[in-house]
Amino acid sequence: MTIVLETQNLEKQFGGLRVTRDLSLKIEQGARHALIGPNGAGKTTVINQLTGVLKPNSGRILLEGQDITDLPVHKRVLRGLSRTFQINQLYPDLTPLETIGLAVSERLGHGGDWWRRMGTRSDVNGEIADLLARFHLLDVMNEQTVTLPYGKQRLLEIAVAIAAKPRVLLLDEPAAGVPESERHDILAVVGALPRDVTVLLIEHDMDLVFSFADRISVLVSGALLTEGPPEQVARDPQVKAVYLGEEAVNV
Amino acid sequence: MSASSDVGFHAQRHARWHYGEVAFWLIVLACGFAFPTRYLIMTDILRLALFAMSLDLILGYAGIVSLGHAAFFGVGAYAAGLLALHGIVNEPVLALIVAGLAAMVLGFATSFLVIRGVDLTRLMVTLGIALLLEALAERFSNITGGTDGLQGIEMQPIFGVIPFDMFGKAGFFYSLAVLFLLFLFARRVVHSPFGLSLRAIKNNPLRAAAIGIPVNRRLIAIYTLAAFYAGVAGALFTQTTAIASLDVFAFERSADLMLVLVIGGTGYLYGGLVGAVIFRMLQEVFSTITPQYWQFWIGLVLVVIVLVGRQRLHRWVLYVPNLVIRQIAGRKAVVAVPESDA
């Protein structure tokens, strides 16, 4: 199998605190890879380094074999690395139509177009319509995002990431905070992602992790504790110890 | 209607002309014929409107705050003055463009300082640049005329045909034409994907970058464009008043501009235009009533606007006109919509 996303000896420190310790991850093409770990294990810090929001102190990040460690955020997106945020990062004043339209325009290279009006390109419009339909947002496409119910905002958050047509998608707790009644929509959408999109999932919800992932990495205090297929990780006594909140495991 | 063309239709919702907008510009044009004795103040309002539209482009769309927008106004003003005084570019329209470009160069150069940092840094940097230029203009008095300003500017006829008259009639229609053309251009730009991406950056720069928007490049672009607009406003000032003095760089000019946008509202282009009209009228009214303390009343109005909320005020103001129009043209018709619903 080809490795599509890889970190080599990643290190990140905030002052004296080592939040990522010598982390080497390999994510295979088409994988449903989950990154789990207790609160404060540094999962989101890893995502922030992968996407370029944070710079690692040392180590490298490779996307499809190319070193992207020093690329700014927006260039990684154009290379096919897209993410959702644990806490929604949307545009409160914009509508779902505008939000998705913008993401599609940027990907197709029309984002800097300052003369042609929004909505006059049929290829962009077609994609927007598809995404709105797929994410159950057609009925609210003209409402301001800030007025949408939380579940819809969560769907929009994922739709925006998908609009970038990523080859690797980083999902940071996609179902976080979504009420039970709207949860099903989110899980269905995540489950229906095409197999050619590689997914790295960060999640607290173990039901979701074990039903979705075909490979799991466990992060504790910024370092990799163990990695393997779900059955193996589930049996691992070290992992059980971490999740049952017993003694901190020596790593 | 297919979903795709439906999307296209709704995406262009704001880009289509509303009746209210057409009415607005017709009224402005009509003022030019209705008040032939008030050309000077009306021209002053048009200049202020253009200047405020420039600030709206960066503040209302891209979220860049500035307390030194007069820097570009001043550069445009002096550039136009020097071009005319030394006979370098005699034709006013061409000189206007050259002056705008001069401000644009400054805007591009300083944009790199402005895009760094957050709001407070930006306020200080923009303020600093304007003060710096004011001091430079005073220091190099051999070029700028120092505290006396540029004097003896004689404007040539527009396109070599239309002379500036002493009543300011030509100046008014000239300014109106410039304002309208630049408005059309700005309107086009803000409804493009580029314009939308600015609003996205203002809303959430983190997410904007995460969908592939080159945030800094976009901010530099709009800041540079806004500098051009401000430079043109400054050049209009010199061309229609035939003077350029140090106060074109003054802090009060930048601060007044903020007030204009607070009154008119940001992010829909008309804020600067409406705000300029109201601001100058308030100034006129208050300074007639109390020549010494008019600033007190302006201050009071601002406090009320901020407390009550502009959206609510707009709805109240538009209540009667909308009621009348609905009586005549049916339930669905609207003259104008408050900015929040537009």
Automatic annotation (TrEMBL), chain A:
Molecular function (Gene Ontology), one example: ATP hydrolysis activity
Query: InterPro entries of this UniProt entry?
Result: AAA+_ATPase (IPR003593), ABC_AA/LPS_Transport (IPR051120), ABC_transporter-like_ATP-bd (IPR003439), BCA_ABC_TP_C (IPR032823), P-loop_NTPase (IPR027417)
Pfam entry (one):
ABC_tran
GO cellular component, alphabetical, reads: plasma membrane
Which segments constitute the ABC transporter domain?
5-246
Cite the SUPFAM superfamilies for this sequence: P-loop containing nucleoside triphosphate hydrolases
Biological role stated in the UniProt entry? Involved in beta-(1-->2)glucan export. Transmembrane domains (TMD) form a pore in the inner membrane and the ATP-binding domain (NBD) is responsible for energy generation.
PANTHER family in UniProt: ABC TRANSPORTER ATP-BINDING PROTEIN (PTHR45772:SF2), CONSERVED COMPONENT OF ABC TRANSPORTER FOR NATURAL AMINO ACIDS-RELATED (PTHR45772)
Name recorded for this polypeptide: Amino acid/amide ABC transporter ATP-binding protein 1, HAAT family
Q: Which organism is the protein's source? A: Bradyrhizobium shewense
From TrEMBL, chain B:
GO-annotated molecular function: branched-chain amino acid transmembrane transporter activity
Question: What Pfam families would the database entry show?
Answer: BPD_transp_2
Q: Where is it localised?
A: Cell membrane
Q: What is its main location?
A: membrane
Q: Which GO terms describe its cellular component?
A: plasma membrane
How does the record say this protein sits in the membrane? Answer: Multi-pass membrane protein
Q: Which UniProt keywords apply?
A: Cell membrane, Membrane, Transmembrane, Transmembrane helix
Q: Known InterPro entries for this protein?
A: ABC_transp_permease, LivM-like
Q: Which residues cross the membrane?
A: 22-41, 48-73, 93-115, 172-190, 220-246, 258-281, 293-309
PANTHER family tied to this protein: ABC TRANSPORTER ATP-BINDING PROTEIN, HIGH-AFFINITY BRANCHED-CHAIN AMINO ACID TRANSPORT SYSTEM PERMEASE
**Protein name in the entry:** Amino acid/amide ABC transporter membrane protein 2, HAAT family
